[in-house]
Specification:
With 409 residues, the protein is an alpha/beta fold. It contains 14 helices and 13 strands. The protein is 42% helix and 20% strand. The longest helix is centred in the last third of the chain and has 33 residues.
Amino acid sequence: MRRIAKEFRAEMRAGLAGKKSSLKMLPAYIGAPTGDERGRCVALDLGGTNFRIALVDLKGGGRLGSKKTRAYAIPKKHVTGSGTSFFDYIARCLKCFMEEEGISQEDIRLGFTFSFPLQQTGIASGVLVKWTKAFRVSGVEGRDVVKMLQGALARQRMGVIKVSAIINDTIGAFAALRYRDARCDVGVIIGTGTNGCYFAQDAHGGRLINIEWGNYDKLPTTIYDKAVDRASNNRGEQTLEKMVSGMYLGQIVEMMVNDLVNNSLLFITPNNKRSYVRRFTSELISYIEEDTTKQLRNVGRVLDDLGVSNHSAKDRVILKYVCRTVSRRSARILVSVLSGVITTIDENLSRDHAVAIDGSLYEKHPAFSDNIRKGLKELFGSKASRIKIILTKDGSSEGAAVVAAITPS
């Protein structure tokens, strides 16, 4: 873990200096919220096949007033269709939301959370580098997504609305917590994917850097990590993400389990018939690790549902151990790179730091947060108490509203 942290810091320095690096270290073009931001702002939050629209009332003094949120499913035809139809659909949903909430177009400040790799040239401009996840929308890569959204708003007769800022979910988590806690200088997402950002003080007051750490490629990998990479549609990319995020942990467990089966170490039957697991998800890892019953009944139910009927008590123990090993490694890798970020900001941990963290893996896995705390204690000893990990739920939408309020009209 210490070696990973040290190597990660070196990779950060290389990225910041414009040298060859697997870390993009992109400037976010926003300052840190002060907590004094006020007003009603609307946030568009797009990071998956469901997107959210939120109306957030900022009261100042780090306080939030009322918040209204609505989720919209994006039909498959738009996820794999043209950029024009994709952004037209988003604009129509926004128009419907505003009409239902009685929001005037002249009144609105709009923040846009767009959780895909962006090359930003300003606070309200961002060129999509590459679609990730299940998105295959044509005619968007290499173009400014803010301009495309503005065009869709104009076509819906909503051209008076201007996008104040575009951010990703990691920066959203940071901004949401920094609004109410001045100690916050790091934002982390650990769910389907993963990323981190940090605010570094400098002679000009400070700058926020989007690390894009999912692409970090200096980690020690196993045969299972290599197999996951070969099976992916982005071989050789997003190495760290494939080792720690919810999109891939289930695949790693599945490959490990089936390797044990091939070596006659799991699901052994008298006639030596082999039972393999298929479609093992990260949600199943959480479900299995929650099982504290003596006979591991939940583990047994999972195996039954997966079509493995010949499991023994020993098999169930082994499966839980494999799940625990994979999720624990995920948390410890995350701790390693996080410690690299924090010691870049404050090498000797001379002050308190708050880390805004959001994402389904951190929130829903029964042991993930505890594994992070234990990892920090191993690395920093008593000084680990200076690092506060704070769940910042819905940070991506709240943060977009806060950033919209920061940005001059």
